[in-house]
Amino acid sequence: MAESLLVALLVLVPLAGAGAVLAARRRSPGTVAALALAPTAAALVLGTAAAAVQPTTTWRWGGQLEVGLAVEGLARVMVVLVPAVALPVLAYAGGNRRDDPGLPRLLALLVAFVGAMLALVAAADLLTLLVAWELVGACSWALIGHDWRDARNPPAALQAFLTTRVGDLGLFAAAGITVVAAGSARYEALGALTGWQASAVGAGLLLAAAAKSAQLPFSPWLFSAMAGPTPVSALLHSATMVAAGAYLLARAVPELAGAGWLSSAVVGLGLATAVAGGIVATVQDDLKRVLAASTSAQYGLVLIAVGAGSVAAAGAHLVGHAALKALLFLAGGIAVDAAGGGRLGTMRLGRALPLPAVTFAVGALALAAVPPLGAAWSKEAVLAAAVHHGAWAGTGVVVAGLLTAGYAGRLALLAYGPGRTTERPHPPPRSEKVAVIALAGATVMLGVAWLPGAGDLVEGLTGGRLFESTPGELAVSVTTVAAGLIAVAVLDRRRRLLALGLPATVRAGAAAWLGLPALARRSVVDPTLALAQALAAADDRVIDAGVRTAARVAAGCSRALSWWGERGVDGVVRGTSATAVRLATASRRGDERGVDGAVEALARGTGTAGRHSRRLQTGLAHQYYVLVALGLLAALVVAAVGS
Amino acid sequence: MLTAAIFVPVAGAIILLLVPRLSERATRRLSLGLAAVPLVLLVAAWARFDGGSGFDLVESVPWIPSLGVAYTVGVDGVSLPLAAMSALLFVVALAYPADRRGRPRQYAAAFLFLEGASLGVFLALDLFLFYVFFDVSLVGMYFLIAVWGHGDAQRSALKFFLYTLAGSLAMLLAILGLYLSSEPRTFDMAELIRQQPLGANGLRSVLVFLGFAVGLGIKTPIVPFHTWLPPAHVDAPAPASTILAGVLLKMGTYGFVRIVLSMMPDAFQRFSTVVGVVAVVSIVYGALVALAQTDLKRMIAYSSVNHMGYVMLGLAAAAAASSGDADARSLALSGATLEMVAHGLITGALFLLAGSVWARGETYDMDSFGGLAARAPAMTGAATLAAFASLGLPGLAGFVAEFQIFAGTFAVQPVLAAVGLLGIVLTAAFFLRMLQRVFLGPLPERWVSWPDLGRTEVLALAPLLALTVAIGVAPAWVLDVIETTASALVGP
Fold this sequence. Notes:
The complex is a heterodimer. Chain A is 74% helix and 2% strand. By secondary structure, chain A is mainly alpha-helical. A two-stranded antiparallel sheet of chain A has the order 1-2. In chain A, α14 (354-367) packs parallel to α17 (430-445). Chain B is mainly alpha-helical. Chain B has a two-stranded antiparallel ribbon with strand order 1-2. Chain B starts with a helix and ends with a helix. At the A-B interface, β1, α5, α6, α21 and α23 of A face α5, α6, α8, α12 and α14 of B.
């Protein structure tokens, strides 16, 4: 009972808190921010307790459906991570957006976003997961479109939502198939699946995860997501939303034994995205876009670990990345605000903003995987898992590591390198400073992972395993990181760091996700819209034309009937045809145009007959009963033929 | 009790027509009070519903004994939620502000008459009675569109009337075919369900099935019998659109459950793949055509084609062959039934909102709007909630229904389910585009004095949206009622 309450509160407190923030929307920004922080802090406490107790609860939805929450496996890490990252982000948002009249809505949605994400990680089954999954998506739509008065933002939110919803179909199908095939949608039930059902579920989960975690070919939606305010990006890229896909695979792939091909596919997808994302991030000249492409690439590494069978390495990298990416977005946001835009060519704000510069450097070094920072340890763990899976995977991780070191170093220098400007722009508010210091502190603290015995702790917390890393692997890995950083320094010395010595067209092409958005537009979006237009036109002209033809034929029939009736075949028919004559007269007046004519005739008739609808009623009821009579007649004929 | 639910509104309609010189205010109060009677009665019926198999709360009087026709009404787990939802829709639709064109008495009378007829369709347990109510409801709707509509209202109303009447005639033939096959001959539904007079094969069985499929398919409507729907919706006054989409369309799919699935399951099973394909075509086609619309009401109308496609897909799965997957088929059927209820609530709310837009802007052209959120936060919030509900967001009613439909269908016809899922992305696309075009972005100069929702509008929308959330969060109270009948219907 107490257990059920604990895990239910973990989800309900943030959701109720979001309501409270909205209810208090007329209070001062400070009060609103405090109201947003309180439920998140409570969720952190509840999450920590839940991680220790590992509570479960289920709730019957009716019929055969059941939803449930359970803090198990990797969920134990996530229920702490999500509110822990959200706290500094919310604090930052309260300061960064204190002049925005939409602040209460922003904070309420962020808190609800946290609640939905907590439900997602605590979901005990795929149906509950799907519910939370789509709620996270809907929150992201509202958050990305937060500044909705600007005509550019709602379409960006739409694109992000639709891209991820394509993936949601996979989860929808996977949950549906599992419910009926295994009798339950719980993670454990996945093991019971075999044959096409196992493969379909595997494919559905992979599709869902690829879309949510911005893997190929869905990666570009993260660029659209940049339309949202900085805190939204910080939260969306770190512990919520994008993390969901990798988390889902980490929970489901080990269970889904019936789809043997899945683990290699996950590794392959992660590897392709890690390398492609690295290239896209390297040539980018917009700060937030470097970070966005880097998010895809880093989650690619997490996927590699999952596919290679090391949920522990995946969980560790997810945590390390969450801290450093939230930090980079928030500290980077200060630079963007100061420079009045995200163009990297106009920044180098190191002297102007020393504190954000230092914290940003911490994040960038962690991203580059420089020991002894925590993210470097988890990257080694990913590499060990990849090598275990196959030499090709190991090689890929090393290449991705080289690119990561390169773009992280380049970004740090271009954004916060020692530049000429020393004039302090607009000092960031205290809450922003507190937020970046806290996250930088956390990023440094995660270095404890290098201490002996930490590996066992990580395995215990995530419920996964780690693979032994050889000294040779470590040496190769550290050397490539160093090589990446040295290359950055050399290019900087030669003043080629921004352009990288590449032609502008090549850079622009690669920076736009290697042309993927254009390809998606040409191959999916435009054809769909064109098809929709064509069908809409056909619907009006062709299909309805069939109806109009039928009406014309009916009018012709009634004319024929009336002719027949005038000849007076028998009394019953005479009664029928007398009205049919009226029908025919009406349609003859309108003539060739069938129903249209009949309507106009009727309308004209009505007009002259008077303004009273009761008159209209009499006329119609007549026609109506005639048709009923005709129908009965036809029915009797059919019945006679039939019997 | 159920008889009172049908005839109190009808009697009210007659009274309203007979009493001249009733003030507008008195008319409003009287008609709302009368319209609420069935709702109260059906809630009471819900409380008394015993959840056993077969029909409950049956009331029966012989009518034409020589033909086996009786006045019989009653409820089961499928009809009760539909009837209750319909009664609620009539109350809020009648309460909603709309231009009465100086004829408030006649307007209310048409509504009450239509309410009685519609409830009669869902409560009738005699095929003949069912047919009478089914057709009489057309008359009420015809007047609502023709007299209180706008645009080319008379033409749209006539097209609606003649087209659906043609469908009724096809159904009448099928009803007679079923009647003539029964032994002893009867129109009694419970008896026909027991008799199962027609097998899967034979010309008569096929013809009767076709008659029902075409007749009910036009009403539903399924592609390609849907072209009467958009003009009827566009030209109808918003409260009438709410009833048309929320109640009248359900008569088609309800007929499939009540008659085809119950009385001739073998024939339905034989054609279940065909019906499933048509349903998937409706889903995808309806969504694609909706995506291309610039007219708000036409878009919602085509979204109905899409949603009724989900219902038909669930029914096709429920009817589909094979033993052993009774659980899956029952899931699909209960999803289809819940989708009918959910669509009534959600699309009802959407059409009412469209009416509010028309009342303020006199146009449905989405591109002429934009940025209304700045002036009308309540309207934006309601529209956002309704749009997300319609696109199947979890936590709202549509999701529970759609999940059940697709889960059930995946077990029986996985390919159809997979194709049908595309509808879920497309609905998201056109609903979010609608929100974007109407409510977001910069506010055009001409709408700077756009008023937000008034008190009546909020009060009318609130129960629809609240129920949408309630069913979405905790559907057990509805699903358990539906399930009593759904599991029995597909039973082994």
